[in-house]
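Quick one, tokens below. Sequence please?
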């Protein structure tokens, strides 16, 4: 898909580049105050969190180890049980470590609820969740972000890593996708 066409599919820009940058600086300040000089394993949840992960991590002043995890929710055609499937697991051992899960968006909460459970079973010192966006209206699981960028209304958003059908991830801002794109 041409980038020009991708831009035309955006109804309006919800969070622009400058607003993203400003908010990430504030989240980084909160994280720096919380972790001080402790080492943290920062887990990027692929693929949507990639832009957020790097823009956040470069502003952290404590030692960070990188790791990456890729999960999918169980099939769209079957009834969702809220379970997730691990497509790519961590490489590092998180036992006794501080784990910071970096995710793009907290929606139903199924993904982060399951991830937090999986990580907690590996005996880390601490597990905290940092998400750029939160759609609280859609929550079905009892889970909240410890560090959060923006609470947003229940609209389907794309850009800055977020996709619809693997498209729009490269847009530098977060935009509301035109309904006509996914209803046609
Ligand atoms: P949850 O498990 O329902 O909380 O959903 C989390 C995942 O759903 C995110 O990692 C996204 O991949 C996807 N998701 C939820 N809402 C949106 C959205 O508005 N735009 C793009 N992806 C979304
Ligand atoms: Mg995702």
């Amino acid at each position: 898909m041409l980038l020009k066409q991708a831009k035309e599919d955006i109804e309006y820009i919800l969070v622009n580049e400058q607003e993203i940058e400003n908010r990430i600086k504030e989240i980084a300040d909160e994280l720096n105050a919380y972790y001080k000089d402790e080492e943290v394993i920062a887990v990027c949840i692929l693929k949507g969190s990639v832009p957020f992960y790097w823009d956040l991590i470069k502003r952290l002043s404590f030692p960070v180890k990188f790791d990456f995890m890729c999960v999918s929710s169980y099939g769209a055609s079957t009834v969702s049980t809220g379970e997730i499937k691990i497509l790519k697991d961590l490489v590092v051992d998180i036992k006794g470590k501080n784990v910071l899960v970096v995710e793009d968006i907290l929606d139903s909460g199924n993904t982060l609820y399951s991830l937090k459970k999986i990580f907690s079973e590996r005996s880390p010192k601490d597990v905290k969740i940092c998400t750029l966006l939160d759609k609280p209206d859609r929550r079905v699981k009892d889970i909240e972000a410890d560090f959060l960028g923006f609470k947003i209304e229940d609209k389907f958003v794309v850009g800055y890593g977020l996709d619809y059908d693997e498209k729009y991830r490269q847009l530098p801002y977060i935009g509301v996708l035109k309904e006509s794109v996914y209803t046609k």
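Residues 17-35 form the longest helix (19 residues). The chain has a mean pLDDT of 94.
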